[in-house]
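Write out the 3D structure for:
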Amino acid sequence: MKGFSGFAVWSLFLSFFATGVFSIDNFRKAFPIVEPDSGHTKLRLSDEGLKAIERITTPIAAVSVIGPYRSGKSFLLNQLLSLSCYEGFGVGHMRDTQTKGIWVWGDPVMVDIDGVKTSVFYLDTEGFESIGKSNVYDDRIFALATIMSSVLIYNLPETIREADISRLSFAVELAEEFYGRVKGQDVAFEPAKLLWLIQRDFLQGKSVQELVSEALQQVPNDNGDPNIDQVNKIRESLAVMGDNSTAFSLPQPHLQRTKLCDLSDKELEPAYVEKRDKLKSIVSSIIHPKIVHAKSLNGKEFVSFLMQILDALNKGEIPSTGSLVEAFNKRILERCLKLYNVRMGNLGLPTSEESLQQAHDGSKEAALLAFDEQHFGRQHAKKSTDQLIEEIEGLYKNFVLANEYQSSKLCEALYTRCEDKMDKLQVLRLPSMAKFNAGFLQCNRSFENECRGPAKGNYEARMMKMLGKSKSLFIKEYNQRLFNWLVAFSLVMVVVGRFILKFFLIEIGAWVLFIFLETYTRMFWSSESLYYNPVWHTIVSTWETVVYSPVLDLDRWAIHLAVVAAILMLYWRCYGRKKHGSRWLLPLYNNRKEERRSE
């Protein structure tokens, strides 16, 4: 029985982990969403907190509290959520910081913002300047909270120090990069409202707004200290962001701070309770859904957004707006490259170099315009723009190589086709200059119309050279082949006229042609001299007219016509004369035996 119960427990344990899902029944508690790594320099995501956010289907807004460690951030969040220390965020009274990384209250507050139901999450961040951490880690926490939040509460004890302003350098860079574009359009993600919250024991003297204004005034730097120059630049940028920030003071809730968690509202300082409630109203009035590319985010989209930010922040040794700009522009850059590829792909290769260059210029301009309309950042975006141009030029080189290859392939095929055609015209059964010229012109015309691209020039030269050689060779052999054909033709017609058709005029004509061809060449020593004789030109013209015309290509049909003629002659020889007699329009040879029979 014990073995069975052990097996059941073990099976339950395995099935629990096999699913890979930790079910969370109660979301009314704090969950870590970002935790430090073992070296406490970089950040990693926590599944519990992500599940608490992913389940939300309405638009999300986030309120983050940042500031030095042991400055009362967790207690302040519990006050804003109307929670006690024992049910809300953990509050530490020891010297070490209690909150590690970034924590979220799992049960969002539902508010109505401009008629849209919005889930507001409250985020607690690890305090700055605690023991055992690097400044880079603090910068990553600050940067992540700055980007995630719709309202960023900068919780400072007593007053504003120089170091507190320096820490806002990242927020200023983000504002300049991501929020500095035309309002209402092309916004990467809307800036968090910065709320300067100064908790102090005294309320007399300068107001908190005066403290903030005084802290943001330029500091004289007669000695040219670069650190002072840097802080002055931050001051100047923060002053420009004045419409995006609010200042508020909050008195101490009680003199005995270690007992705050055990005190009710009635036991807290009345002035604190009044100011706290006013702070709640201010936060509610400035809160807005998290907007990325003019679109509010639900739970899953917010988690995806968070992953993208964290990956960019962890990429370098030091978090920078440049790494964030590159990360956010990566997908936009890919879309613009795809746009360039699609436009160039529609061109169709091969094409002329001028057309390819024009298509490249137009596609590049369209891609850069799309990137300019969608990209994140201003100053650091130049690096992404340069990267886009570099990759476009790389793609263009590939298109140039592909165009050259396709052009060579097409022109080579056309050249080979014409070369084969010229070779066939060289060995015509019946030599015909008219047919050769027609094929020559057709090859030249088809090559000129169909061959395109950068290889056309080279192949044109090769084509002209090949056609010139083919034509010279054909002309050189044409007269000799025609002469041989006519000699053979005259002898054949002698036989046909004498023994088959028995037309003595045909025989006489054939003998005349044969004697002219043979005696002329012997009288003038060579057959070449015959080719300049007007009679020969007449013979050639007649031959060309008979052998080739647009209507009839005798070379193609020579065998067929010869077969038909032979059949007709055999038919006539065997059956025609018996049936119709020997009546001819031309005089025939008379056979004496046939004459005697007829007598």
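Confidence is low (pLDDT under 50) at residues 1-22, 180-187.
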